[in-house]
Amino acid sequence: MKLPVYLYGHPVLREISEEIDTTYPDLKELVANMYETMYASDGVGLAAPQIGRNDRIVVIDASPLAENFPECDGFKRTLINPEIEILDGDQISRSEGCLSLPGLSEDVKRVEHILLKYLDEDFQPHEEEISGFAARVVQHECDHLEGIVYMDHVSAIRKQLNRGKLRNIMEGKIRCEYPTKCAPRKKK
Question: Which residue in 71, 141, 146, 171 is the catalytic one?
Answer without folding.
Answer: 141
